[in-house]
Amino acid sequence: MSELTFELVDGRKVTVDVRSALNxxxxxxxxxxxxxxxxxxxxxxxxxxxxxxxxxxxxxxxVSQADTVPAQHGHxxxxxxxxxxxxxxxxxxxxACDHTDRDLEVHGVAWSKQAAPDVVGRQAWxxxxxxxxxxxxxxxxxxxxxxxxxxxxxxxxxxxxxxxxWLDVLRRxxxxxxxxxxxxxxxxxxxxxxQFASAWRVxxxxxxxxxxxxxxxxxxxxxxxxx
Length: 227
Prior knowledge:
The protein is α+β, with helices and mostly antiparallel strands and 227 residues long. Helices cover 15% and strands 40% of the residues. The strands form 4 sheets. Strands 3, 4, 5, 8, 9, 11, 12 and 15 form an 8-stranded mixed β-sheet that branches. The mean pLDDT is 94. GO terms for molecular function: catalytic activity.
């Protein structure tokens, strides 16, 4: 189990023990966006899913607010997403980056989700506080090399299935309980940008207020195994 602490707009801090974690996949509202994401992954050798959207349960300890993500090789990368956190008395919304082992993903998306963490922000909004403008919230990601950043994803939450959609899914599956964390699935990447970077930064922005929630981490290669 993983413990997360979020700072809210009013300065209050909320601590959550993660008891259930799920990753949405192929979750665009537009079938064109879903097809684009399937094509992105197909270039990496990942077979297309038999149905969309998908929902992948992952180990709760994989949800993290870490600044560093260890990787066994150079073919891992992130995905810009939002995350929904169910607390004892509320639902929070924050930014997330679903880091994934792309080599393992070729053999099974569900397996690859277990091989790298879901990094989430340290700040959050109450879902009810932004419910009237969810579609206008922005999601942007950059990849870095230690010296500069290059934008790799940009869109709005209007491109993804809504938090309410996933709340209904959780309710039907008896997973709508305190400690549940769900990541939304991602938006298309810009073509021609190398996703296998040494750092990722993702921002969830609210144009109405100018507020931004971000997460950022470096990717560090593990030593070669002795075997």
